[in-house]
Amino acid sequence: MSTFSAPRGTYDLIPPDSADFLAVREAMAAPLRRAGYGYIETPGFEQVELFSRGVGESTDIVTKEMYTLTTKGGDRLALRPEGTASVLRAALEANLHRGALPVKLWYSGSYYRYERPQAGRYRHFSQVGAEVLGAEDPALDAELIILAADAYASLGLTGVRLLLNSLGDRECRPGYRTALQDFLRGLDLDEDTRRRIEVNPLRVLDDKREAVQRQLTGAPLMRDHLCEACKEYHEQVRELLTGAGITFEDDPKLVRGLDYYTRTTFEFVHDGLGSQSAVGGGGRYDGLSEMIGGPALPAVGWALGVDRTVLALRAEKIAPDLPRGTEVFAVPLGEDARRALFALVTELRRAGVAADFAYGGKGMKNGMKSADRSGARFALVAGERDLAEGTVQLKDLASGEQSPVGLGALVGTLLAALRPEPS
Ligand code: AMP
User: Fold this and answer.
1) Cα-to-centroid distance, 213 and ligand 1 (Å)
2) Cα 182–184–187 angle (5° rounding)?
3) What is the DSSP string of 119-147?
4) Per-residue pLDDT reduced to its tens digit, 265-288
5) Which of 24, 62, 66, 127 to mutate to test the pocket of ligand 1 (most atoms within 8 A of CB)?
6) Which fold has domain 328-416?
7) Ligand 1: residues whose CB is within 6 Å?
8) Is the pTM of this model over 0.85?
9) Cβ atoms of 84 and 16 closer than 8 Å
10) Deepest of 180, 193, 259, 388, by most Cβ within 10 A of its Cβ?
11) Ligand 1, closest atom to CA 81?
């Protein structure tokens, strides 16, 4: 223990558990790469204004949860609380929207929110995200949802549920908003919630408190107010999902509170996670580009939470397929053997075999203990006599069988044993 510990609401990824995080990130990225998404990376901080406009002045993220700072040069910056605004800012700055459309992008990184920490809710967390810019096509909304569902499925998760809704558009949303406000104003609500009715009425539907939810029975729902075009669009998304074998639940109260969110909105939840059950979410945000000073640009995207997906794996007791751990562990006995085996380990690694070495002159007993602990399938042991004969001892750590192998034949022998050709 040093004098310091990880800041409140954060934690370190330490082996062997950290391997699960890599596996989750990879599982989320693989379907995107196969579907033509290009990788984008943006800075960990941006001008505060980008988020206050791009996430919304009235959201908790902006009013309570942003880590902001003023630089020595007087710039007001914020650690990024989410990815969409930054990705859109970067794409517009690079004029991607003037090239072939749609632009499909994916990203992976750290995000920061000053939230009250609890299981599944951290101040530093990790997301993999995807955004598609410049096209309004129900097939894109469906594609993104399918790619996320496939990512969860590829990890072996069976407990992820998809909730789906449509938020309408500029045509039909304003009328619904007014109808909802009229209904909400008649309820018995606290000051804060009353204020929310005026700024962000859809968010009230999302209130988790039992006393509020009880009063919301009978609230007008967007689905009964959708215009023909939005109804048709949503129906197509639903059909495409069904055609792809994706199960979803219509959730007419699923909302995103801001005006630039339009039409498709969705969330992936896992019931094994307690109150922080959202493992990912997203939707269409056709108005966001204009909010941050860009041209009209329809867009749709999602962000999946890596931390909570790892928790979901643990809740379902799934050990993901991990990248290969150590396969061969070398234990040298004496100085000459050290040189010879070190060269062999380098050669094995270059041939694609995960190999490690008993560093620190451990001797036979401790060296073999390390070999066992490494989880390797084979140990290589060599002493003066083996080297004089031009061999090393190859030991199968599962069966305990051991036999000498000529130095020149070793890499080939190991490759044949570790990667048998399919017959
Ligand atoms: P959001 O941008 O709030 O829609 O978040 C997208 C996903 O990121 C959520 O579904 C969560 O899985 C994850 N997430 C958001 N906030 C946190 C947090 N404070 N700690 C851990 N994961 C989070």
Assistant:
1) 23
2) 120
3) TTB-SEEEEEEEEEES---HHHHHHHHHH
4) 999 999 999 999 999 999 999 999
5) 127
6) Rossmann fold (3.40.50)
7) 82, 113, 115, 121-122, 125, 127, 278-281, 303, 305, 307-308
8) yes
9) no
10) 180
11) 2
